[in-house]
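COURSE: Structural Biology Practicum
ASSIGNMENT: Worksheet 4, Part C
STUDENT ID: 0417
INSTRUCTIONS: Below are two proteins. For each, the amino acid sequence is given first, followed by its structure token string. Answer the questions at the end about the second protein only.

PROTEIN I
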Amino acid sequence: MTPNENLKQYTLKETGHYKVHGRTDETQPALPLFFNGSGIEVNVTGSELWIDLDVDFETHEPWIWTALNDAFMSRQMLPSGACSLCLFRGMSPDSVKNVKFFRELQAMSEDNACRLLVRGFRSDGTFLPVRDRRFKLEFIGDSITSGEGTYGAEDDTDWLSMYMGTSRNYARMVSDALDAEYRLISQGGWGVLCGWDNDPRHNLPSRYEKICGLAAGEMNEKLGAGKPYDFRSWIPDAIIVNLGTNDASAFEQPEWTDPVTGQSFKQHKEPDGSCRPEDLARFKQAVIDFLSMLRRNNPTSHIVWTYGMLGYDLTFAITDAMNSYQKAAGDLNIAFLQLPNTTELTVGSHAHPGEKSHARAAQVIIEYLRSILA
């Protein structure tokens, strides 16, 4: 196919019409896509469309996926540097195409150089308005919500970018079924109180009120990741929390020691295998405090805490904490939802839930939210 001489280059602002998905700083010259599930959506005529990107990383290369007219089209890793991807070509020029471009990889707290910026588009068509979806959903979680394990063979155990995927996780499945826009805040290995290895710095509540508190370093600071998030800018109808799995793992792991200060942290078990009461109590308090933070920032959103895709160890602790919060706050707009555990038939790579497990969990959430949001 010969080069298309009719392609025009557009910055995002010059397109006139586009929809941003995910938390970001839209005042930047190029649009930063910080989170998995963040992206950009356009409606455009023409025969050809390219997206212009700026990419960088040190150890964890960004992966992306694209959809055309709501059909999955492609998934790939991106090279470092300025690059362009063809999103379609050779199509009937007069028809309107809906095009979605999404980041697959979670915000990388372990790679300060990891970035994915959208600079603009090249097309021979005209950009048209993008419709609003019926609902807005926010998902908060760990590696499960990051889609770790949704790609790759069951025997694959390496911790790699290519095994993470929003395109196959329960959040996208739920949102598609409910005609909802979604935003994700997730980080593998993190919890409500501490990470899987007892690191108390690795808790999602401590980063929730920033645009992307998970992205650190000078570069991310310049891109606006550390700015306070404006909760009025995008009000979710429901917030789906899926945390506690790594907090449960912390009870099984050795003590964590800060290499700088020498301070240590550990969630303990008693000789009979039960969780030490005072350690369980501080986990419960972390759940209560996070619910209070969520409600303070999202006064009208329905909050549903989901749990169980990788075991039920802390089910009673979570529900006890929710009951305590509800009694103290008088907040009736919350609920707990137990999800199906992952089995040998539904497991994916890296001993994480596979696509089948995400589909089972999604169905439970879909049925519940349909009754609530209706």
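PROTEIN II
(use this one for the questions)
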Amino acid sequence: MSIRLIIADFEPVIRAGLFSFFLNTDIQIVEEATNAELLFQKIGQYEPDVVLMDTDFPDGNGFQLVERIRENGYQGRIIFFSASDRQTSFARALAVGADSYLLKRVSRTELIRTIRSIVVNNDKSYSGELRRVANALKLRTFIEPQNPLTPREIQVLRHVAYGLSNKEIASSLKLSIDTIKEHIQNILRKLDVNDRTQAAVWAVRNNIIQ
């Protein structure tokens, strides 16, 4: 049985390279897309097993697009394929529910292995960095402030420090946006800081994230 794949990338050389990668394998590229809107349409049309997509397009943000794709009912696998190795990108990928995040310097063998593992074995094959970020968002040990944070507030603060929006934090933690706003207000008050940027700086300096 072949794995049906849609690739989405603005750069022609990347798309051409992926076509060559999957020649003579069980991974079949059924369609390609060069922008966010086209990808959204193609997913609805072809319902592929997996989407391999960049994080940025000329007409939209890949993370926001994944939210839109999921809201439209797509149940297949989504893998980000990006040149960006920023921790914020890894955290946002986790928050929107991507199945994996691969850097464009990944080998052909690793790319094929990851796709097969996710589709066939239902695994989430995070890279080392993505796995580290996922673990960091769950950690609970840190230097306690004078006004102690609850375990949930610690978790929210880690998401804030990685640059996630309230909506993305709510999606990641399966909470309402109003609940996240309340947690952030409590965090700011307890840390005695004025805004989320200062809270993020506090988190980094106190080893909330590493």
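ANSWER KEY EXCERPT:
Q1: The CA atoms of residues 55 and 62 lie 4 Å apart.
Q2: The longest strand covers residues 27-33.
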